[in-house]
Structures are given as structure tokens and as C-alpha cells.
Write a structure and sequence with these properties.
Elements lengths: L2 E3 L42 E5 L5 E11 L2 E6 L4 E5 L3 E3 L18 H6 L10 E2 H10 L1 H10 L1 H12 L6 E5 L9 H17 L3 E4 L9 E3 H11 L6 E3 L24 E3 L12 E3 L1 E3 L4 E3 L2 E4 L5 H8 L2 H5 L2 E5 L27 E5 L5 E5 L7 E5 L16 E6 L5 E7 L6 E4 L2 H5 L11 E6 L16 H5 L2 H11 L3 E6 L3 H8 L19 H14 L5 H18 L18 E10 L8 E4 L4 E9 L12 H5 L1 H7 L22 E10 L2 E10 L6 E6 L2 E2 L5 H12 L4 H4 L1 E2 L6 H4 L2 H8 L6 H73 L5 H86 L28 H165 L4 H4 L2 H19 L3 E7 L5 E8 L5 E4 L6 H21 L4 E2 L1 E5 L7 H15 L17 E5 L2 H6 L6 E8 L2 E5 L7
Parallel strand pairs: 7-15, 8-9, 9-11, 11-14, 16-17, 17-18, 18-20, 23-24, 24-25, 26-37, 28-39, 28-40, 33-38, 38-39
Antiparallel strand pairs: 1-10, 2-3, 2-6, 3-4, 4-5, 8-21, 12-13, 15-16, 19-20, 21-22, 26-27, 26-29, 29-30, 30-31, 31-32, 34-35, 35-36, 40-41
Helix pairs in contact: 2-3, 3-4, 5-6, 13-14, 14-21, 21-23, 22-23, 25-26, 25-27
Length: about 1300
């Protein structure tokens, strides 16, 4: 299989503080930082670096494509390859996309996040609308963008020419492309494009384009690229959580689609010269505001998401397009989201469209219309599982010109549909028209309907079966290409009866209830059976019975004639694990506190940033999950290899490892802390219960106490299921299975007796070892004591010589210092100088304030005078302008007067009229001849007419002259007034200017005087500072001398104490030697007696142990375990598998499987013939049944269940079944087959999975934590839904 690896490593160079909004990460506790502040000493693949010359200068940049050893292969900007060592490279602090390398096809708003950081807000939002507006308004901005990043400019042209030209947009989400859905996804893409072309709209995709994280299959990628290359409309895509690689979300699998197809601008005309094409997809990796809408990719950190939703960009946007988990949203028809963002953090009265959940629905919060928040989940474009049965899918058409309101829902019905049928009768009545080829139907078979489907054996009944209506209907559906699944629902009464069955005898005789017998009788019966099968001699059996009775009485006062059933009633062990803390444990070098309480179904996954050949292996997931087991038992999940050591848990860079587990047992708080060092010198084990310290003197003693309280021997079966032990019950040998089953029966008395026997054996062995080693130890102690005494004497003499020498040195130094010291009272002199300096400082402050106040006062006066001067100057300017206007008016009036007088004279001269005619026109007579042509005027009418015309012209000329005279008089008067006004204003300006000059001179003199005083005071202050520094040096010399005296006196006291200790050690060694010699003979006798008793107690421990009498009473638990396991197996196999267990004639436990045939019958098969998936279902069911039965019988009720890689070998249906079963196990109301699941107390089911397996059942997890290995250390990122 070929994949494209999308993930690239990234650096962490700072400590992520608690509640940091810029790059927020959760911390496990308020005291422990999960991330390391030390950056890795090497570069990562995909990182942009600079090549450094020999002289240290950095030049050409490139992207690391491969690293091997200390060599790095770089793709340069010109697409050439170059090899350099790490010492020849340095990180490019201003990283930017370049042509070539892993990002040579990168487009979209990713580039805007780097090149236009100056336009981003405090919430790291790229305001693309502001960038486009700035580019259109200012050419310089465009030049700036061009020099910064050519890719950014191309992206801006892309959105300007194409995306900004569309108003309508078609929304879809959650495509989840993978091999099994590829054909359906291609149909969806084709339908979406055709619909967008029909409505002349762009396309918006809201995340989860791919299904698997971290890689993209080549065949899927090629098919998608081939489908997209026909698209003709622009698209906007944001990555979802399935698309993203790292926790920041900047690396994602949408990058290969950024240049999947090219489009033309809708405004360009296609002619003979092809117009320019632009990239169709706009991939938005950072929160971006575009077209007055805010596009937000999936963001894991809630605080970052809240800061974005409360930003100004959000408030000013008309709509939001997100890929978010909102609390209360429907994950499917039955399960709401519990740990998402509160809907109240989204802005009110805005259209919010989101991807992520597959069910199309709307969340409304708020009763008032003014504060109502509405979030609309677009949903997936096709049904993906039975959880989406009956859901109607659709595409949303929105209009950006209408504030992104949804103007139409377009139904889409593509791909296989899922149908649930609750009974056989409903299946028979099911409308065939409602299903089509490729659909999937799940029919639940109830017990009362079995006669319609079960194929009975016998030829005489074959015809009846073939003619069954259900059989005919079933074949009709299947022949039509419709997949039909039959889900058998086993009656609860059958399981209850099977659970109540007792222990069946191997020979078919009566059932013997061993719980009704006394412990002594059971022990005797067991020993007799061992003697009868020659497994034990009669003499030894008698001795074991006698010693065993003593042990039983010591363990509990039992009536030997009457069975005490209370011996078999175990007090429930209610174990609630709150958290585990690891330090120096495995790959966890720094302390990590990991919460384990109330986490729900918790996924723990990993990322290996150190090993390019590994994605998640070796990061420490199992180490972290199994750390509580190591703290309680001192062991981890066993591996197939046998070369491990206990000290292997210690981190390579730590001196010791420490694991601390906190919680409560039977409602009492407890703390267990185990430490282990490589040398085993600093190993310890601490146990605190209900505030009381129960730690024993030895680790072994404390471990025994933990074994009693926590039943540590069964933790790998009831709580911690490692990837190497999860199938251990099914593949275990007979002896091992009996040992495990012994935990499920009431064997307290036998366990106490066995523990007592082992304790006695250990005590005797320890005593024997102590006696054997005591003599040699005491002899060595004697030699060591003598040597220590001699060394103490020599050390005392040496110390005395050193003391005397140092006393002389001290005396000399005191004398020298006394001679050199001149100023006896340095402190007083320093105080005096300091006082004078303070006075100077105060004087300087006073003078500066006075100068500032004087300057402010002078400036106010000067400013006032300047303001007045400006007003006067303005007034003078206005007066001069008025004077000029008056002069022009007077000249014009004079010219008009001259013109009027000239016309009047012309008329008078022309008609020979005297000036007196102006006063009396009646005396004027008409001329007899025309003055122009000289012809006579004969007619009186004509003469009268001429006379009237001449009179009118003379009258008008006279009138114009009078008006001109009047106007000249007025303008002359105005001119005189204007000249007078100019003269007055000019005097005022001269006066104001004189006052201003006077004020400025006075201000300057006053300021110079104050500055001179300040200068003189500062000079005095500088002299005082020199004096103070001289005194400070002298004070330092005195202080250093006093410190030297104190140190020498302390050293002298230490030498005296050392001498006293040497004498005491010598006396102690002599006393110990005498005691050793007196006890040697006594210890030899004790050694022989201890050896004999130790052997007997070892045999008693085996007799009372799991392979002894405890196995004798295990038979009845086998049947109960089978039925509990079968209930889970029915869930995991959909009723198609059975696991059968029984006790054979030789007391061995027989295990067989049964597989359901298509006709409903069962076929018995050996376990070795099962497929990998069938084997995993059986082994997982047996493990869960074991946990269930242990909980019901009161052995262990734990809040935690750890499953390491439980989905191995399972197909997709099997993985989904496991995920659904895990969710059911958290609900105490869920009761499968009355197996006692109501007794579960689970609050956390921790599942360790690889990335691919986890993605298929992602919705089954409440939270997801991630273990990251970086720089040789492992760290933990808690799920964003976890609350401190």
C-alpha cells in the first residue's frame, strides 16, 4: 500500500504556561509543566533553514527534505539539491513558502498568516478584507506585499479576481474520503459541482475532507484530483480535525488540494488570447475574515477559540464558518456532545455554519431574539453508519449579500443508506421502495421470532424453511444488492438460568457444593485427592494437614465441624484511581501528573517526533497507562522477551524513576509511591491510606500490604490489559487459567493462609540469609571500625594543624586591616553624604519644577500675545484688502463718469443742442435737415418724432452722468474710510509686536537663570556621588573582612565536631565487635531450624496457593465466566460467535468456539481455526467477562479500565462494535444479558490505539490525550475538554 505522508515535525521552543492564549496547551496539574522548554538539537524534515558560510554569514534558504546521521538534504529555491551538516545550517527566523520542497504547491490563506502578520489581530486573525481594501487603495501596500511574498500577492489576485466576484455559495462538509467511501465521495463532489454551476455559486467546505489523519492514500488522492480538475467555480476550504496533523492545525491534508484545479475570472472575456487562470481552491489554515465572514478551521484549544470568538473581527462579521464541537450538539440520534464549547461563547444574531458532526441540525440558545445564538451543523453529505439511519442530507445555499442567510436547502441522496428494523415482522412489512441497491439493513431478531428464521435439521423440514416468508424476503433483498445484517437478541432468562447453574461433576454424579464445607474438610479432601493420584505422600499429607490447620486457625478462627460461609464472602474492593504521576519513568524524564478520574472513554494516542521511521511507536503510551500497575505491583505489561530488568524503567537521563498513584479504595483516600534507581540503592515504596502511613520497613513488606488491599496479582486481568496480555485468558494454559479464575471465587481463607505460609517462608528465608551473612558482615564491620578509629585520630591532628594555621592567618589579616583603615565610622559618613545628595536632588527637583512652571507661565503669555498678533495681522490684512477694493471701485466710478460726460457732449455736438436743453426740452425745435445725410426733414410728424428721440437720448445721457457723479462721491468716501482703518490697524500690530518681543526676552532671561542654578546644583551632586562611592568601597572592605572572620570561625567549629565524631565512631566499632562474637554460635543453630521450617511453609504455600486447594474450588466459576463472556461476545460478533468452556474429566478447562452458519445452526470449531478477528473478539469478550464477573462477585470494582491496542486484527465493523460496547460499559443502566454490568463503577476507560484504528471510532471517545516524544523525552497533551 502506498501513502503520502502529510505530517511534518515542528519545534517547541518555549514553556507553555497555564491558560496561555497565544499557543495554549493544557497542563496536567497547576504545578507541572507538560512541555519542555529545551528545543531539540537538530532540524526537522520540512523545516526551512539558511545555509551558513565559513565566515558565519547566512545566505540562500532551503527546505529540509531528508536527514540521515548528521547530514541534511536541502531543496533550494532554484529546485536544486544540496547536502550540508547541521553545523552549517541555522533556522530561518522569517520562514516563508518557497518554490520546491514539500510546500512548492502551497496556495491560499496559509501564506497570509506569515506575510501579513502585521495585519493580523491579537487573536491571530487574518483580515483578508482589510488586506484587499489596502491593496486597492494604496499602490505602496501592493509593493510591500510583493517584496514580502510573491505567493501572497498571487493569492490576493486569486481572491480578488475570482472568489470576491461570487455572492452565492454552496456549503457542504465532512466528506471523509477513504478507500471504502471513495466512490460515494466522487459522486458527492460531482453533484456539488453541478449544483454550484446551476446556481452560479462558489463552494464552501467546512472540514474533514479526508478520514485518516497523517497520511493520504495515493489512489484516493489521484481520484480526488481527477474529479476536481473539472471544477469551474471557486471553492473555500477549512481543515477539520480529521484533516489536521499537529495540535496547532497548521499542518493538514488539504495542502495537496490547494492547486487541484484552475479557473478563469468571471469578469474576463475569453478571446483569441487565453485569459489568466487562477487557483480554484482557497485553503484557509488560520482564522481569516473574508467577504465579511469569519472562517475558522478546527481549533482544539478552547481558550484560543474563545479569544477568536470574542474578537472585534468576529463582532464585525456577518457570519461564521467553523469546524467546532459545541456542547449539546447531536453527535448522532442518541448521543449529545458533553465536552465541547458552550454555545453561549458564539456571537448572537449571526449565522454560524459548522462541520464536525454528521447529523444536520440546529442549536438554538437564548430565549430573547436579541440574544439568541443559532449554530447550524451542515452534516455529512451521505450516511456513514447505522447511527445516521433515517437522516436526510442536504446542501445549503447561502448569499453573502444577505448577510450569509441560507436561501435554499438542496436535498442530496447519494451513497448507501442505513436502515434499522426492530423485528422480523417489521422486516416483512418493510416497504421495498424505500431501499435501493447498496443500502444496508440491520434486522434485530427477537426470541419470539426465531421460528421464522432458524433452519431446523432434517430433510422433512427443508421445504418449510425454504418457503418461510422471512427467508424469501431476505433472499429478495440480498439478490437486489441490499446488505442485510441479522442481529440475534438472546433472551435474558436464558442467561440468568445459565448463571445460576452450579458446579457439574465430571462423572455425572451429584453436584458437590464446596462452599458448604468447612475449610478443614476441603483441605483434607484436596490432600486425599492428591494422595490418590500419587501427587503426594501420605506422611507429608498428614504433616501438611496438621500444619495447615494451624495456619487456618491463625488466618481465621473457624469452627472445624461446621462450614462458615462467611469465609467465602469477600468485601468489595471499590478502587477509584484519581491520577498517576511519573518522574524519570521510561521515556518520561520530567514529572507528568496524568488525571484518570471521570475521563469517560479516553483515547491515548502518540506522536514520535524523534524517529522518522515511526509515527507513534515507542513514545511511551503504554508506559504511561501501565504506570499505576507498576506503582501497585512493581511490574509492567510482560513482553515476549525475557531480557528485561527491573531497572529498565529508569529513564536514561535520570538517576531514579518515581511513580505516584492517588485515589481511594473503599471510599478511603490512598497514596502509593514507588521509586526505583538503577543501582537499587534509592528504591522505596510508600503506602498511605486514609491519612495513615502504612509503609513497612522493607519494600517487600509494603508490597505484601498492597497485595492484600489491592489484589495486585489480578490487576492485569481486571484493570490493566496490555497489548500482550489482552488475549492472555483465551490463550493461557490450563494451570494459568485456573490461577486467574481463583481470583473470581471466594478464596479469602485460602489466600490468607497461603499468604501467611509465604510470609513465614520469607521470614525464615530472610532469617537464614541474615544468619549466614551476619558473621562475614560483622567481621568486615570490625575491620572497618578499627580503620575508622585510626583515620579519625589522624584526621584530628590534621585538623588541629589546619586550625592553628588559619588562626595565624586571621590574626595577620586583622592587623593589616586595622592599619589600613582610616575612617572608623564609614556608615555615619555615608549617611551624611547621602543626606546631602538627597538635598541636592530635592533642590534640583524644586528648580526644575520652578523652571517648568515659569516656562509654562511665560509660554502662556507669549502664546496669548502671539494669538493677539495673529488676530491683528489678520485684521490688517483684511483692512488692506478692503482699501484695495475701495480704490478699484473709485477708479471704476470715475471712468463711468467720464464716459457719461463724453456721451452727453457727443449728443449735443451731433444735434447742435446747447447744454441748456437738459433743463427745458420744450424750447427745443426739430432740425430741418438730417445731420447724417444732409436731406431736409419736411414732414412735421417726422420732425416731431426726431425731436422726441433727441430729447430721450439727451435725457438718458444726462441721467447716466448724474448717477456716475453720485457713485464717484460714494467711492471717494469709502476710500477715505478704508485708508483711515488701515492706518489704525497698523498701529495696533506694531504695538502687539513690541509687547511680544519684550515678553520673549524676559522669559529667556528667567529660564537661563534657573538653568544655571540647576547646573551648579548638579555639579555639587556629582562631587557628593564621588565621595559616596569612595565610602562605599571602604564599607565593602569592612564587610568582606567580617565575613571572612565568620567563615573561619564556622570552619573551626566544624573541625572540632569532626574530631568528636571520630572518637564516638571508634568506641561504637569496638562495642559492635564484642556483640558479634557473642552471637555467632546462637545464629548457627537458628539457621538450621529456619531452613527446615522454610521448606515446610513453601510446600504449605503451594498447597494453599492457586495450583493447590484453590484450584479445587474453581469449577463453578467456569460456567459463570462463560455466560458473562458470551454476553459481550454477542455484542462484538452480532450473535455470530460462541465461546464454550467446561471442566473436563482430568480437571482441565476445555475451551471451544462455535460459529453460526447462514441457516442459523452452530458449528463447533477449535480455537486454533478461528481467524484473527474472531480470535480477538473471543479473547476480548473473555477478558471483559472476567472483569464483569469479578465486579459482580465483589472482588474488584474499579473506576479505571486500561485497554492497550484492543482493536488488533478487527475489521471496521468489529472496531465499531468495540467502540459502542465501551460506551455502554460506562452506563450502569445498560445491562447486557443480566451479566451484572450494573455492578460496574467505571468512570474512565483508557484505550491505547494507533491513529488509523482510532479514527474509525473517534465519536466513541469522550476525550483524546496525546503522548509526544520529542528530543528523547515524552510529554502529554491533555484533551481540550479536560477540566483541571
Amino acid at each position: 500500500m502506498i501513502f503520502i505522508n502529510i505530517a511534518t515535525s515542528f519545534q517547541f521552543s518555549c514553556i507553555f504556561h497555564h491558560r496561555r492564549s497565544s499557543s495554549p496547551l493544557h497542563r496536567c496539574t497547576p504545578h507541572t509543566v507538560i512541555w519542555s522548554s529545551s528545543p531539540p538539537p537538530h532540524f526537522q524534515v520540512g523545516e526551512e533553514v539558511m545555509v551558513v558560510d565559513d565566515d558565519g554569514a547566512a545566505h540562500s534558504a532551503g527546505v529540509i527534505e531528508q536527514k540521515r546521521g548528521g547530514w541534511y538534504t536541502l531543496r533550494m529555491r532554484d529546485s536544486s539539491l544540496m547536502k550540508r551538516r547541521g553545523s552549517q545550517l541555522q533556522r530561518n527566523k522569517v520562514a516563508r513558502p518557497i518554490n520546491g520542497g514539500s510546500q512548492r504547491n502551497s496556495r491560499g490563506a496559509d501564506s497570509l498568516g506569515n506575510a501579513e502578520s502585521s495585519l493580523a489581530t491579537s487573536a491571530n486573525i487574518v483580515d483578508l478584507d482589510a488586506i484587499l481594501q489596502s491593496m486597492h487603495q494604496k499602490h505602496s501596500t501592493r509593493q510591500c506585499i510583493t517584496t514580502k511574498n510573491q505567493t501572497t500577492l498571487e493569492t490576493l489576485h486569486q481572491v480578488t479576481s475570482c472568489h470576491s466576484q461570487y455572492n452565492r455559495w454552496l456549503i457542504f462538509s465532512d466528506l471523509h474520503v477513504m478507500p471504502s467511501t471513495l466512490s460515494t465521495c466522487l459522486q458527492v463532489l460531482d453533484t456539488v459541482h453541478k449544483t454550484a454551476v446551476h446556481f452560479n455559486s462558489g463552494i464552501i467546505f467546512l472540514g474533514d475532507f479526508w478520514h485518516h489523519r497523517g497520511f493520504v492514500r495515493v489512489d484516493c488522492l489521484n481520484a480526488i484530483l481527477h474529479a476536481l480538475e473539472t471544477w469551474e467555480v471557486p471553492s473555500i476550504m477549512i481543515p477539520g480535525n480529521h484533516d489536521q496533523i499537529d495540535w496547532r492545525g497548521f499542518e493538514h491534508a488539504l495542502t495537496p488540494l490547494s492547486n487541484a484545479y484552475r479557473i478563469y475570472s468571471p469578469n474576463e472575456v475569453r478571446g483569441t488570447i487565453p485569459p489568466k487562470q487562477y487557483s480554484g481552491p482557497l485553503i484557509i489554515s488560520h482564522p481569516t475574515k473574508f467577504l465579511n465572514a469569519l472562517f475558522i478551521p478546527h481549533i482544539r484549544d478552547k481558550e484560543t477559540m474563545k479569544s477568536i470568538l470574542s474578537s472585534n473581527e468576529t463582532a464585525s462579521s456577518s457570519a461564521l464558518f467553523v469546524h467546532a464541537d459545541v456542547k449539546g450538539a447531536s453527535m448522532n440520534d442518541l448521543m449529545p456532545s458533553q465536552h465541547g464549547l458552550s454555545a453561549l461563547v458564539f456571537p448572537a444574531n449571526k449565522h454560524v455554519y459548522s462541520g464536525h458532526f454528521h447529523k444536520p441540525h440546529v442549536i438554538n440558545v437564548g430565549k430573547k431574539s436579541s440574544t439568541c445564538t443559532s449554530i447550524r451543523y451542515v452534516g455529512s453529505p451521505y450516511q456513514t453508519s447505522f447511527s445516521e439511519s433515517g437522516q436526510v442530507k442536504s446542501l445549503l445555499l447561502v448569499d453573502s449579500k444577505r448577510d450569509w442567510q441560507c436561501i435554499e436547502e438542496i436535498p442530496i441522496d447519494i451513497g448507501p443508506r442505513y436502515h434499522r428494523v426492530s423485528s422480523v415482522h417489521h422486516f416483512l412489512d418493510f416497504n421495498r421502495a424505500n431501499v435501493r441497491k447498496g443500502d444496508k439493513v440491520a434486522v434485530t431478531i427477537k426470541p419470539q421470532d426465531l421460528e421464522d428464521i432458524r433452519i431446523l435439521s432434517g430433510k422433512e423440514q427443508a421445504a418449510t424453511v425454504e418457503n418461510s416468508p422471512f427467508k424469501i424476503r431476505l433472499e429478495e433483498f440480498r439478490q437486489s444488492g441490499i446488505s442485510v445484517e441479522l442481529r440475534d437478541l438472546k433472551p435474558q432468562e436464558e442467561l440468568e438460568e445459565a448463571f445460576q447453574a452450579g458446579i457439574s461433576s465430571s462423572g455425572g454424579g451429584e453436584i458437590i457444593e464446596l462452599e458448604d464445607l468447612s475449610p478443614k474438610t476441603i483441605l483434607a479432601a484436596y490432600l486425599d485427592s492428591e494422595v490418590s493420584r500419587s501427587g503426594l505422600g501420605e506422611t507429608m499429607a498428614k504433616r501438611l494437614l496438621e500444619s495447615g490447620e494451624i495456619l487456618l486457625r491463625e488466618a481465621k478462627d473457624v469452627d472445624t465441624n461446621k462450614g462458615d460461609s462467611s469465609l467465602f464472602v469477600n468485601s468489595p474492593t471499590e478502587l477509584d484511581i484519581e491520577s498517576v504521576s511519573v518522574l524519570g519513568f521510561g521515556s518520561f524524564r520530567q514529572e507528568v501528573v496524568y488525571p484518570l478520574r471521570n475521563r469517560g472513554v479516553l483515547l491515548l494516542r502518540g506522536t514520535n517526533k524523534d524517529d522518522i521511521g515511526s509515527d507513534s511507536n515507542g513514545v511511551g503510551k503504554s508506559t504511561l497507562a501501565m504506570a499505576p500497575l507498576w506503582a501497585l505491583s512493581g511490574s509492567l505489561d510482560p513482553r515476549p522477551t525475557q531480557d528485561g530488568r527491573v531497572a529498565d524503567v529508569v529513564n536514561d537521563f535520570s538517576d531514579l524513576s518515581q511513580v505516584t498513584i492517588r485515589g481511594s479504595i473503599n471510599t478511603k483516600p490512598f497514596l502509593v509511591k514507588r521509586t526505583k534507581s538503577a543501582s537499587a540503592k534509592n528504591s522505596s515504596l510508600t503506602f498511605v491510606l486514609d491519612g495513615k502511613a502504612l509503609t513497612r520497613q522493607s519494600i517487600q513488606g509494603t508490597q505484601e500490604l498492597l497485595d492484600q488491599y489491592f489484589s495486585t496479582g489480578s490487576l492485569m486481568r481486571t484493570i490493566f490489559h496490555g497489548q500482550h496480555t489482552i488475549g492472555g485468558l483465551l490463550e493461557s494454559t490450563d494451570a494459568k487459567l485456573k490461577e486467574e479464575l481463583s481470583y473470581l471465587v471466594s478464596l479469602d481463607i485460602w489466600q490468607k493462609s497461603a499468604s501467611l505460609a509465604r510470609l513465614k517462608q520469607r521470614e525464615l528465608l530472610r532469617k537464614t540469609a541474615e544468619v549466614e551473612g551476619m558473621l562475614s558482615i560483622r567481621e568486615k564491620d570490625k575491620l572497618q571500625a578499627q580503620g575508622k578509629t585510626l583515620m579519625a585520630k589522624e584526621e584530628m591532628k590534621r585538623r588541629e594543624a589546619i586550625l592553628e594555621s588559619e588562626r595565624q592567618v586571621l590574626s595577620q589579616k586583622e592587623q593589616c586591616f586595622s592599619d589600613d583603615s582610616v575612617t572608623p565610622d564609614v556608615e555615619t559618613a555615608m549617611d551624611s553624604v547621602q543626606t546631602q545628595m538627597n538635598e541636592c536632588e530635592s533642590e534640583i527637583d524644586r528648580l526644575e519644577k520652578e523652571a517648568s512652571k515659569s516656562l509654562d507661565s511665560d509660554n502662556d503669555g507669549i502664546n496669548t500675545l502671539r494669538s493677539q498678533l495673529n488676530e491683528k495681522a489678520a485684521k490688517e490684512s483684511n483692512a488692506k484688502s478692503n482699501l484695495q477694493a475701495c480704490q478699484r471701485n473709485h477708479e471704476i466710478a470715475s471712468m463711468e463718469l467720464m464716459s457719461a460726460e463724453s456721451r452727453l457732449r457727443n449728443l449735443q455736438s451731433e444735434w447742435n443742442v446747447s447744454t441748456s436743453m437738459n433743463d427745458d426740452s420744450s424750447s427745443f425745435s426739430s432740425p430741418e435737415t438730417c445731420h447724417a445725410c444732409g436731406q431736409p426733414i419736411v414732414s412735421k410728424v417726422t420732425q416731431e418724432h426726431v425731436r422726441e428721440n433727441i430729447i430721450d437720448m439727451l435725457s438718458n445721457a444726462t441721467h447716466h452722468k448724474d448717477k456716475a457723479c453720485e457713485k464717484v462721491s460714494l467711492t471717494a468716501k469709502a476710500l477715505a474710510e478704508a485708508k483711515k482703518e488701515v492706518a489704525g490697524v497698523n498701529l495696533e500690530v506694531q504695538s502687539c509686536m513690541e509687547r511680544l518681543r519684550t515678553a520673549e526676552v524676559k522669559s529667556s532671561l528667567r529660564s537661563d537663570s534657573l538653568l544655571q542654578k540647576i547646573k551648579e546644583t548638579r555639579k555639587i551632586q556629582a562631587e557628593l556621588s564621588k565621595d559616596f562611592a569612595t565610602l562605599a568601597r571602604k564599607a565593602k572592605e569592612v564587610s568582606e573582612f567580617n565575613l571572612l572572620i565568620s567563615r573561619m570561625q564556622t570552619h573551626l567549629h566544624g573541625l572540632k565536631e569532626s574530631l568528636k565524631a571520630s572518637v564516638t565512631a571508634h568506641e561504637s566499632c569496638c562495642t559492635d565487635l564484642e556483640a558479634i562474637e557473642s552471637n555467632i554460635e546462637e545464629l548457627k543453630g537458628d539457621r538450621e531450624r529456619a531452613r527446615d521450617s522454610s521448606s515446610l511453609n513453601a510446600l504449605l504455600a503451594d498447597t494453599f496457593g492457586p495450583k493447590g486447594v484453590q484450584a479445587f474450588v474453581l469449577r463453578n466459576v467456569v460456567q459463570s465466566l462463560q455466560h458473562c463472556s458470551q454476553a459481550y461476545l454477542d455484542e462484538l460478533s452480532d450473535g455470530s460467535l460462541q465461546l464454550r468452556m467446561q471442566v473436563g474429566s482430568n480437571d482441565s478447562i476445555l475451551k471451544q468456539a462455535a460459529v453460526r452458519n447462514p441457516d442459523g445452526t452452530w458449528r463447533v470449531r477449535p480455537l486454533s481455526s478461528l481467524s484473527g478477528g474472531q480470535w480477538r473478539r473471543c479473547s476480548l469478550s473473555l477478558s471483559l467477562g472476567y472483569i464483569d464477573l469479578a465486579s459482580k462477585r465483589g472482588r474488584m470494582r474499579s473506576s479505571l479500565l486500561v485497554l492497550d491496542e484492543p482493536l488488533t486484527h478487527l475489521d471496521s465493523a468489529g472496531r465499531k462494535s468495540v467502540g459502542e460496547l465501551l460506551r455502554k460499559m460506562l452506563s450502569q443502566a445498560c445491562d447486557i444479558g443480566k451479566t451484572g454490568r450494573g455492578s460496574f463503577a467505571l468512570s474512565t476507560i483508557l484505550v491505547i490505539l494507533q491513529e488509523i484504528a482510532a479514527e474509525e471510532i473517534e465519536e466513541c471517545f469522550d476525550q483524546t490525550d496525546e503522548v509526544i516524544k520529542l528530543g528523547g523525552e515524552s510529554f502529554v497533551i491533555l484533551d481540550e475538554n479536560h477540566k483541571e
